[in-house]
UniProtKB/TrEMBL annotation:
Keywords: Hydrolase. This is Glycosyl hydrolase. InterPro entries: 6-hairpin_glycosidase_sf, Beta-AFase-like_GH127_cat, Beta-AFase-like_GH127_middle, DUF4986, GH146_SB_dom. Residues 641-776 form the Glycoside hydrolase GH146 substrate-binding domain.
């Protein structure tokens, strides 16, 4: 049953309980209310089905099928969303669902304790094949663990859901279940050595170290702090604690939750290693790896500096889950060191990335936000797609009121300019913030009731010019000496009727794409501006339940035919924007010199939906553009021709594509070379993928290899256990560049099939691969050679 509703301050002492911050009319309230409508369309018994199944109880409804193998992860996010909305709005339906989920999950936890006494006491997970996975892992056998799809990542979502049910909604039963679940986690790993723990953590495991740190803060029991440190991955912790960025080509959202845990451990234990690791991780991501709208990563991985051009080549742009987790890390760091730079990033990301990932009509969620010029986003539909970004999206649009205000001692921090009301119970003061920001460059705070002496810490955003911020208190100018990227303390005895007006003049700027200086994004204040470019071929705009439905599958328009800005001085480009009369934050660009011109109407990126768009623009000088366009055109024609031929492809060594293609392997290894991932198999080992044929014949297998491999490289390639070819790459090219080999596939291997399994089998004492990229592609036009 629900207890007091202010448990939130037990973990996050600087935040106000969500019930004390009320959103007023504006884009965030609209998004939050629409999100509740969307959430209530989901079938709770279907979300709970994996938990009942693994506990030995009969499910009350069939489990959702999309992303089978990760069954249960959405249920944890959904529980968090129910808790957040119960606390923030008092919504009766959310409260009822929250309490129903807790009662059902309690039955599962109890059943696991009875039905699986050897390994299941306290377990609340929906991981498929839980019995084999956890019972064998407990004994140090990782075979079943590695066959499962990221089991710790999966259960982490329910850990967080139970914590949040207590944290936000004050549910005491959830707290008890959470701590029992933590005890299960300690018990299941108690027999593992430190080396085995680190080996286990090589697989994505969410923020498990954060969960144990939270349990330590909730109880004061040091066994949880010890567990938090045991669940901290030294592959990331050690370099980050020494201010060393080792993130190139690493799966982005695997790393960010680890850093949240580092920060929480450092915050609670004051261990300098963890403190520095959390701080530096945030710094290097936001300064070196973040795009203008706050997102990071492409194809789910952090690119190296030299491969950042992938942002404009690929359609799998920054992932929403990454920003979800970076915002959590930001809140945590701000709690310890309330610096404006943290809020600057938070504001940028919430307005431009998070707000943009909800369809304003359907409430659907977005996985990838493409940066490629003239691409588009894909949205989920309720009860269809069970992507990770659906789960985090359920929470994202529920807690917009969490960070508008914070408090520290007798200081009230005004962080975000969002229409809202704050009821500060401790002081008896109620404050109303009236604003249409970002559509108007100001906000007004009115003390509606109460009287108290405190410092109002007014944020001076980095995007306001030095000396341009204006503060008036009850109509009188308030003098200050501060500069941008700071806070201004307005210290006084506040009483009902006091009014503070803050003028926040915004101006136009540009930012370069990280490590790709000829692509820029345009901003007005903190708001990223985009331009719609049409609605042609928005294939899969509302995703179905298919495996790859979260990726835009419509035609890629060539980069060389996208609009390109010609300017010898980039700083003049934002100055040339002309405001559209009576349409705040809309601009035209009549002075721009464009190649492949369009009618440019720039608007807030978060308003662009159900359309292709430009977020980043190629910019070239007059001297550059002739030679550059010629070379770009040649590259694009070759790339587009290959894409058009491609029926299916796999990027070996990358987690998601390999899971999506049901990889099987033995004695197989992965790595990275020249910013590309590879997979190989040694000494009789193999690896294979199930690939779609689109029921076509006349296909070829195209394989990318590195041209200067060492040692014996002899192997066979099979199509459904029929040998296609024997390959020997030993000393074949001796060139330090990639080589693509096309192997025609006999139609007899393809006829009547929708899928084939492509297998690379190494010879004894030899290596198959490394293989960098695999395509099934239609054969080029011309005479066939079988």
């Amino acid at each position: 049953m629900a207890g007091h509703t202010q448990a939130q301050d037990k973990l996050y002492h600087n935040e106000f309980p969500l019930k004390d911050v009320k959103l007023l009319d504006g884009p965030f309230k609209h998004a939050r209310d629409l999100n509740i409508q969307t959430l209530l369309k989901y079938n709770v018994d279907r979300l709970l089905a994996p938990y009942r199944k693994e506990a030995g109880l009969k499910p009350k409804a069939p489990s959702y099928t999309n992303w089978a193998g990760l069954d249960g992860h959405i249920g944890g996010h959904y529980l968090s969303a129910m808790a957040i909305n119960t606390a923030a709005t008092g919504n009766a339906a959310c409260k009822q669902r929250l309490e129903y989920m807790i009662s059902e999950l309690k039955k599962c936890q109890d059943a696991n304790t009875v039905n699986h006494p050897g390994w299941g006491k306290g377990y609340v997970g929906g991981v498929p094949n839980s019995k084999e996975t956890w019972s064998t892992l407990k004994n140090g056998d990782f075979k079943a663990y590695h066959k499962a799809w990221v089991p710790w990542y999966n259960v982490h979502k329910m850990y967080a859901g139970l914590r949040d049910a207590w944290l936000y909604a004050g549910n005491k039963e959830a707290k008890s279940m959470f701590l029992k679940f933590c005890d299960w986690g300690i018990n299941i790993t108690s027999g593992l050595t430190d080396a085995q723990m680190q080996s286990m953590l090589d697989t994505e495991h969410g923020g498990m170290n954060e969960m144990f740190a939270d349990a330590y803060q909730m109880t004061g029991d040091k066994k949880y702090l010890i567990a938090a440190k045991r669940f901290s991955h030294h592959m990331l912790l050690d370099p980050m604690s020494k201010d060393s960025d080792n993130l190139d080509n690493k799966h982005a959202n695997t790393q960010i939750p680890k850093a949240i845990g580092f920060q929480r451990i450092g915050e609670l234990s004051h261990d300098k290693k963890y403190v520095e690791a959390g701080r530096f991780f945030w710094q290097t991501i936001t300064q070196n790896r973040t795009l203008a709208f706050g997102g990071n990563s492409r194809r789910e991985f952090f690119p190296s500096a030299s491969s950042c051009t992938d942002y404009v080549n690929d359609v799998e742009g920054p992932e929403t889950c990454n920003s979800y987790n970076m915002l959590k890390l930001t809140e945590d760091l701000f709690r310890v060191h309330p610096k404006e730079k943290y809020v600057d990033y938070y504001e940028r990301t919430v307005f431009n990335h998070i707000l943009s990932t909800q369809n304003p009509e359907t409430g659907g969620y977005v996985y990838f936000t493409p940066v490629r010029p003239r691409s588009y986003r894909v949205y989920s539909a309720p009860n269809e797609a069970m992507w990770c970004c659906v789960g985090s999206g359920m929470e994202n649009h529920s807690k917009y009121n969490e960070f508008i205000y914070t408090h520290q001692g007798d200081s009230l921090y005004l962080n975000l300019f969002v229409a809202s009301e704050l009821n500060w119970e401790k002081t008896g003061v109620k404050i109303r913030q009236e604003t249409k920001f970002p559509y108007e460059p100001q906000t007004k705070l009115i003390v509606e009731k109460g009287s108290s002496h405190f410092s109002l810490m007014v944020r001076y955003p980095s995007w306001v010019k030095d000396g341009a911020l204006k503060i008036t208190v009850n109509g009188k100018n308030f003098p200050y000496k501060a500069h941008p990227a700071s806070y201004i303390a307005v210290d006084r005895l506040w009483k009902a009727g006091d009014t503070v007006t803050i003028q926040l003049p915004m101006h136009n700027t540009y930012e370069q794409l990280p490590n790709v200086p000829n692509y820029i994004a345009l901003l007005h204040g903190p708001i990223v501006l985009g331009a719609k470019t049409g609605t042609q071929d928005l294939k899969g705009l509302i995703a179905d339940d298919s495996r790859w439905g979260h990726i835009p599958s419509g035609k890629k328009f060539p980069l060389n035919t996208a609009p390109i800005i010609i300017s010898d001085n980039k700083s003049e480009i934002p100055k040339d924007l002309v405001p559209v009369k009576n349409k705040p934050l809309f601009f035209t660009a009549p002075k721009w010199e464009l190649i492949n011109p369009i009618k440019v109407v720039l608007e807030p990126f978060f308003l662009i939906h159900d359309a292709r768009y430009m977020m980043y623009w190629m910019t070239l000088t007059h001297k550059q553009y002739h030679s550059y366009l010629d070379s770009l055109s040649t590259l694009e024609k070759k790339r587009m021709a290959l894409d058009k031929r491609t029926v299916d492809f796999v990027a070996p060594g990358e987690q998601q594509p390999e899971v999506d293609h049901a990889m099987q392997n033995s004695n197989s290894y992965t790595g990275n070379n020249m910013d590309e991932f590879w997979r190989s198999a040694r000494d009789g080992g193999y690896f294979s993928y199930q690939m779609a044929t689109d029921s076509a014949t006349n296909l070829s297998l195209i394989v990318r290899y590195w041209g200067e491999e060492q040692g014996n490289r002899k192997f066979d390639i099979y199509i459904d256990n029929q040998k296609l070819v024997s390959e020997d790459n030993t000393g074949k090219w001796n060139q330090k560049k990639f080589q693509e080999v096309e192997y025609p596939i006999p139609n007899s291997m393809l006829e009547g099939k929708t899928h084939v399994r492509v297998k690379f089998q190494s010879f004894p004492h030899s290596t198959a691969g490394g293989v960098y990229y695999i395509r099934l592609a239609r054969k080029k036009a011309g005479p066939e050679k079988q």
